[in-house]
Amino acid sequence: MADISTISTTIAAALASALCPDGTAQAAATGRSLVIRRGNLTQADLGDAPRTLQQGCDFITIADSAESWVRVDEPLGRPWRMDTTQPATAHMAISGDTATVTVDAGATPGGTVGLRVTGLPGVAGDACSLHVATAGDTAATIAAVIAAALPGAVASGADITLPAMTTVQAINAGTLAARCVARRQQQVFIITAWAATPAARDALGCAIADALALTDWLTDENGSTFRIEARATTNDDTAMNRGVFSRPARFLVTYDTDLTRVVPAMLAGGTGIGPDVVRGDVLLGTPAP
């Protein structure tokens, strides 16, 4: 989920990559030391810190403007859409009246496994037992959960023994990340260049403008993509008597507050749900094998 903190951090990382091609331990593209961070200048940056403006270190600060926040219409109905697919690492196999659960060697258990059984005593029609594997599962715990929901089934380790005269089908499917846009908004983020001289301020301000000139989209650490658009830039010399020159550049950011849930890759007998399927769609076709 995108947040003002992850957006600021992502912008800082993009600027660091563009302005410090040799790494942040080296001088920036302007030839001077550079500190990039969220927030604002502190009193220490003006005199007590190891690197200060007066010692020739430039600063870039990134802050959000609360007054600029505006809500934008999100997709009608807030539909859940399928995102990335995670292949299953837990599997179910059938041999006669015995079903066996396996987990890929060295892998974290994941995926959806289960059984569809016809002919269980006391059950008219088909019975179905499913389990979505999690990191704490083992083949034995998965087998026990699935067997517990099927009358007459007995779990022993990773094996499930089913009553005689039943017809059994294994169910195997991966998982999907489903994403929903809960809210969409726009907000101005202020990227400010700070230096001890007008020339250094201007050089850093131009470098920031060049670094973001062709950037329309950025993706934060959570995988949420947001749009960034340049707005007004001004010079601020009000603190020139203290040797502080700044250039705040405003950027309009459009971002989503999105939610992500892990769901099994099956619904109403269908498997492998594609990106065009949303909540409420009905899948028709043959049952999963």
List the helices and strands and how they pair.
Layout: H1 4-19, E1 33-38, E2 57-64, E3 70-72, E4 80-86, E5 90-95, E6 98-103, E7 112-118, E8 126-132, H2 139-148, E9 154-156, E10 159-161, E11 167-173, E12 175-195, H3 198-212, E13 217-219, E14 225-233, E15 245-264, E16 266-267, E17 270-271
Parallel strand pairs: 1-2
Antiparallel strand pairs: 2-12, 3-12, 4-12, 5-6, 6-10, 7-8, 7-11, 9-10, 12-15, 13-14, 14-15, 16-17
Helix pairs in contact: 1-3
Descriptive report:
- With 289 residues, this protein is mainly β.
- It has two domains: 4-75 and 183-254, STM4215-like (2-Layer Sandwich), CATH 3.30.2000.10; 88-173, no CATH class.
- It has three helices and 17 strands.
- Strands 1, 2, 3, 4, 12, 13, 14 and 15 form an eight-stranded mixed sheet that branches.
- The protein is elongated and about 90 Å long.
